[in-house]
Amino acid sequence: MKKIISALAVGSLVLLLAACSSSGEAQKKMTAGDLLDKSQEAMEKSLKAVRAHIVYDDYAVTVYDGDIENPEKAGAKFDMKIDAFLDPMKVRQKSIISPRGVRSWKQDLYQVGDRTFAKPEKESDWEELPSGSIEELFGTLAAESHPMLDLSKFKEFEDEFVLEPIEYGYALSLSLDRNDYKRIKELFPDIGPSQDGFNIVDKIELVITFNKSTSYVTSFKWSSDMRNYSDGNSYRSRQKLNATYSYFNDIEDFSLPQEVSKIAAE
Q: What are the φ and ψ backbone dihedral angles of 262, each rounded to 5 degrees?
């Protein structure tokens, strides 16, 4: 009898170890491409509302004729807090815009479908902006992560991502060099120096995190530092973006300002 019980115990242990091994192998077999596809499908199917916080710092320095003591600095920092319903699209955004060398100012923005309405601080009237205004105002990096990250942009690099398990989910990390610059530039045209010339890529790194249970994207971080030399001048572009996503399908509805509703109905 003892031999039978012992044999059953050993058999159960073998089955348990085999199941654990099988589960571990299945997890290891998931690729970055699989995760991108799974997340995109999940968000398209079930994500209806989200809260986003995007902080984007776009910094540029130009040195003319080697005059490093008198660089020309430009760029701006954007801090955007967004509540968004995705189908149909209804977005409320409050932004703090801080151009370098100029006092910060606030801007309220609403999107209704494919139409965008904005009112800068201290202005009394709302203005409808032309199509593509999010990209025009905040750049392609911010536009593609607003109000939710567009994962299709990164399928180009699915074989180069590093997939790692993290607490409550997964992370995809990517580090690019000068050889990859043209590829990523096609996806995000305003990254790096805008001038033509000899490019040096000091850093292009990005990390996307995913919730394990829902497969939704929970954050997107971008950091790049690039230089360009042309006709005796040097140009440097440093860009950092940190986008976080939360309150999935759990944000309170909001009403449009009366003037925005009136313009949108026209």
A: -65, -45
Element (H, E) at 239: strand 233-246
Cα separation, 109 vs 127, whole angstroms: 10
| Alpha helix (H) residue ranges in 47-192 | 133-138, 140-144, 181-187
Q: What is the pLDDT of residues 111-152, one digit of tens each?
A: 999 999 999 888 889 999 998 889 999 999 999 999 999 999
- E strands of 13-71, at which residues? 49-63
pLDDT reported for residue 264? 87
pLDDT > 90 fraction of the chain, expressed in percent and rounded: 72
CB atoms within 10 A of CB 225: 17
Helix, coil or strand: residue 232: coil
Pairwise CA distance, residues 109 & 239, whole Å: 23
